[in-house]
Write a structure and sequence with these properties.
The protein is mostly helical. The chain has one domain (2-129). Helix content is 61%, strand content 0%. It contains eight helices and no strands. The protein binds fe (ii) ion.
Length: 135
């Protein structure tokens, strides 16, 4: 979702992570739901859609000169982090896994989706990181 992409850009700037790969992750993290119309297991099912989508992009005129192409290493990173984005209660040591979960948590909150109890520590931690008083 575009809103997730914008939120993750902000967090990536703050955390010193690669802004563009984070934005791509944010934009396509729900691709399985978008492509299939079904939300069940959409995080893990995303693995079926990521590489074909990126390869289609890489073949497009926008990426043809190579400077805007997404590398195999970046595809591998997307395939590692996106399938984990629904496990909000699980803390990872992988900064890109965590940032996608955090951005999705904030995005869902801003869209008025109820924050499940197990997701609340993450929500409060990210809001505090952004300087909001959560007490
Ligand atoms: Fe999702």
């Amino acid at each position: 979702m575009i809103s997730t992409a914008q939120i993750i850009r902000l967090l990536a700037l703050k955390r010193g992570l690669d802004v563009e790969i984070c934005a791509i992750a944010g934009a396509i993290h729900d691709i399985a739901t978008m492509e299939s119309g079904k939300a069940e297991n959409h995080a893990t099912r995303a693995i079926d859609y990521i590489a074909p989508l990126i390869n289609e992009y890489n073949e497009s005129k926008h990426a043809k000169n190579g400077t805007l192409a997404i590398t195999d290493e970046e595809i591998a990173l997307l395939e590692e982090i996106i399938p984990q984005h629904c496990s909000k209660e699980v803390l990872s040591t992988h900064p890109y896994v965590e940032i996608l979960k955090d951005a999705d948590t904030i995005d869902r909150y801003l869209h008025g989706v109820e924050t499940r109890e197990m997701e609340q520590p993450r929500l409060f931690a990210v809001l505090a990181e952004l300087g909001f008083d959560v007490n």
